[in-house]
Amino acid sequence: MRELSGKVAFVTGGASGIGLGMARAFLRAGMKVMIADVSRANLDDAASQLKGGGGEYRMLQLDVADRAAFARAADETESALGKVQVLCNNAGIGAGAPLTTATYADWDRMLGVNLYGVVHGVVTFMPRMRAHGRGGHIVNTSSMAGIVPLPDPGGIYTTAKFAVRGLSESLRLALAADGIGVSVLCPGLTRTRILDEARKGAERAGADELSAGFLEAEPYAMDPLEVGEAVLEGIRRNDAYVLPHAEFLEEVRALHREIEESFRTDLPVHPKRAAFEAIRRKMTEDIKASIAR
Q1: Average of pLDDT values for 241-265?
Q2: Secondary structure of the chain as H, E, C letters
Q3: pLDDT at 193
Q4: 269: number of Cβ within 10 Å
Q5: Calpha distance 97→163 (Å, rounded)
Q6: Distance of alpha carbon 123 from alpha carbon 128, whole angstroms
Q7: How far is Cα 11 from Cα 87, in angstroms, rounded to an integer?
Q8: For 8-249, CATH number?
Q9: Distances from the Cα of 168 to the Cαs of 30, 72, 119, 143, in angstroms?
Q10: Sequence spans of domains, the chain
Q11: Dihedral of the CA atoms 126, 131, 134, 137 (nearest 10)?
């Protein structure tokens, strides 16, 4: 989607942090934006920040874990702004319980927003985007924790963010024929309210090395508008991944090496298995080759 002016975007978690950064970048590009957020206070604050800045936008209170509310939000957006061509499933929560002590309620809370909030956005808007036939783009916010796993305290968060990454990769292949691009956003430290929660946790944790390092780095977290501009460029280029935090590059390379080196090359590969995987691989490669960049 090279030309974005006049297009309609729907952004969840849009009233603060990365979501608001996206909304600002989209408005600067001449887009119309529905800013959806669960917090009325955040919506009011965002409205105050955007006042006088120009551009067409609306504010909408939405709990992304509520499927029925999502459908109503889609109807309201189409009525107010028109058909949605850019969907940003960005809403998320942090500060989950450690894996080793988590209850079902802890899992339900984290997955209900960080994974099912994305699923609900896809299931609600994808059929509408396919039906209007104008193409479009979906951006799902994962995290660098969706590539590089977090330790025990962030394990449920990691689980959800890995799932969002996998969903996005498969959805990109599934929607290629419809002219709908899909990107997965994997940010690192960015000035968001999730980071505010993390700071409070680090302050409570005391003087351990990780908490101390976080508290030192936190003032230098990326500006959400920088992330929003990276997302805008990723949509224009139809990138599979939007990765604004270059400090993770060497760690990701090491992780990929670890995966590659774990393959057992001493075990036999039956020709029938290899032939089947070659068919599947070519199918995927052909779809990727067809995707406009």
Answers
A1: 98
A2: CCCCCCCEEEEECCCCHHHHHHHHHHHHCCCEEEEEECCHHHHHHHHHHHCCCCCEEEEEECCCCCHHHHHHHHHHHHHHCCCEEEEEECCCCCCCCCCCCCCHHHHHHHHHHHCHHHHHHHHHHHHHHHHHCCCEEEEEECCHHHCCCCCHHHHHHHHHHHHHHHHHHHHHHHCHHHCEEEEEECCCCECCHHHHHHHHHHHHHCCCHHHHHHHHHHHHCECHHHHHHHHHHHHHHCCCEECCCHHHHHHHHHHHHHHHHCCCCCCCCCHHHHHHHHHHHHHHHHHHHHCCC
A3: 72
A4: 9
A5: 18
A6: 9
A7: 6
A8: 3.40.50.720
A9: 26, 24, 10, 12
A10: 8-249
A11: 10
In tens, the pLDDT along 36-80 reads: 999 999 999 999 999 988 899 999 999 999 999 999 999 999 999
Residue 245 and residue 17: Cα distance in Å, rounded?
Answer: 16
157 belongs to the catalytic site: yes
Catalytic-role residue among 116, 157, 220, 241: 157
Retrieve residue 206's tokens.
């005391």
CB 55 within 8 Å of CB 33? yes
Contact 81, 128 (CB under 8 A): no
Q: Which residues contact 119 (CB under 8 A, 6 or more apart)?
A: 167
Closest CA to 176 of 233, 238, 86: 238
CB 111 within 8 A of CB 160: yes
Asked if residue 133 lies in contact with residue 157, where contact means CB atoms within 8 angstroms, the answer is: no
pTM higher than the cut 0.90 = yes
Question: How many Å apart are CA 217 and CA 211, to the nearest integer?
Answer: 10
**Six-digit token pair at 126?**
């994808």
